[in-house]
Amino acid sequence: MLTLYQDPRSGNCYKVVLTAAHLGMPLKTVDIDVVSGFTRKPDFLAKNPNGRVPTLEFEDGRTLPESNAIIWYLAEGSNLIPEDRFARAQMLQWMFFEQYSHEPYIAVARFWMVFAPKEKLREKEHLIPDWHARGNAALAVMEGHLRTHDWFAGGRYSLADIALFAYTHCAEEGGFDLKKYAAVARWLARVAATKNFVPMGKLS
Amino acid sequence: MLTLYQDPRSGNCYKVVLTAAHLGMPLKTVDIDVVSGFTRKPDFLAKNPNGRVPTLEFEDGRTLPESNAIIWYLAEGSNLIPEDRFARAQMLQWMFFEQYSHEPYIAVARFWMVFAPKEKLREKEHLIPDWHARGNAALAVMEGHLRTHDWFAGGRYSLADIALFAYTHCAEEGGFDLKKYAAVARWLARVAATKNFVPMGKLS
To answer: How far apart are alpha carbons A66 and A50 in whole angstroms?
Structure first.
């Protein structure tokens, strides 16, 4: 069985859990508190030299980091990846958008405001207005797309929806107001109604 | 023919040019000065609501943004994408690493130090130490991999090498010292010796 090293509060890890659940794929999970610094210790760096979760481990010891590469691996050949070449590229377009224009502001604001020690937040507080401006710009791009589309690529639920759902559904924890994005809110409800959907976890 | 909207000084655009050249694929290019603000104007936002280059335009008017999604589209079915499922996921792993852990520091430092108006750089100058720390961390991860591998995925030249070459080969313009990364330097020379390789362009 595949093993997922994860912090269940991390949206990047949640993507993997959502994908495996949708596909009915069993997954062993090992929970890690990212705030503890565990992912920067030598044992974990041997699994992922970039020191991050999620990291997927195969039975033969091979490992695969990067949330969007992991969900691609799990979903190959399934209906979570469009068969049409252009739609498949559009799915990847939104997955790269998520990692470049969305996660660094929406996930990072949530991390510092909810999970980081309060004295550390004080060092970062001056960055919050920029995170909010750029995160709202990403939400506005999503809103524009979702006003005329039910899903992000290929006319159906795909990895692009999973990647963008992970940190959008909990964006309010980072100080974003989702009431301003009506089409995004309707899409969040559509994702939550998909087959085998599971809510985000908690650290045990 | 496909049309590429690009700033030829941008590594993200250079990835598309390198991929098309390797594949012997003709490409019409339209040069844009990103510093001019052109990509934030309504005509361009209709092509890419996220207001960035590269953006690829098809003859029927469809458009595709995000450098790594564009090169995926161009290279489907070619030897730039590994046939093995795990190697293909590893290629994507390095492409997501490039957009999340490499480009935001190495490309951004170069942009502000080389292309941005000098008075604007002054507003960003306090960020340079952080860009250099995180960019050097990314280069160290690459160095670790390249000490024992000639290429990033699948044992041969792939889109992962193209994505990482684009801003690594000009990292010194952003104040990074590539002499500290001997395996990276040897890999840069291997990429520059690949079939149909073209150097990065200039704004005409």
So the answer is: 9
